[in-house]
């Protein structure tokens, strides 16, 4: 019997830092990133998060509803972080709200579902 | 007048390398990654791609239809890369097929839409 898949939501946040970021604007960025990750995890409806950064940074967070995403966007400390981000930390960013429709996974230690 | 948003699709590929990856299994991985990126861009329905890797790797590719995603998954050289990936390059990966429902963007040099 196939388990029914319950759709959920992903927020894909893609960003670049300004050219002078390493010299001038890094102050407070790492602390704010960590703080936002902790805060996000405390929100209702938060399901998980992955982040990586090279030339571009990609953070994908997962949520159980659009309502949860909206609440997180409007969370007061997060609003301040967004303002600071636009002011100092990012030269560009893009946010995509997505509905996860299906997924599959591979693990070395288990039998593959392929 | 607000431009109508046309939904499209994102494939979120999240992965980890095995512990011994740096020592033993890296051979051919970078070349294959580059080759797959070039190939993906040649597929019908390909819209874009972003990648970054630290502890986890995240690659998000964008497509104009589920059909395009299916065709890419089944592309013969890509099928070989997937097999090699499961055999040597990844200890774990997860693939999520998502419908992008809306998005917004910020750029330093333009007026923000916030």
Automatic annotation (TrEMBL), chains A, B:
Matching SUPFAM superfamilies: Dimeric alpha+beta barrel
Instruction: Report the EC number(s), separated by commas if there are several.
Output: 1.14.-.-
Source taxon at top rank:
Bacteria
Q: What is the enzyme's class at the highest EC level?
A: oxidoreductase
Q: Which Pfam families match?
A: Monooxy_af470-like
What InterPro entries does the record tag this protein with?
Dimeric_a/b-barrel, Jasmonate_Hydroxylase-like, Monooxy_af470
Q: Which GO terms describe its molecular function?
A: monooxygenase activity
Q: Which UniProt keywords apply?
A: Monooxygenase, Oxidoreductase
- The keyword RNA-binding is annotated on this UniProt entry: no
Spell out the protein name for this chain: Antibiotic biosynthesis monooxygenase
Annotated organism of origin: Hwangdonia lutea
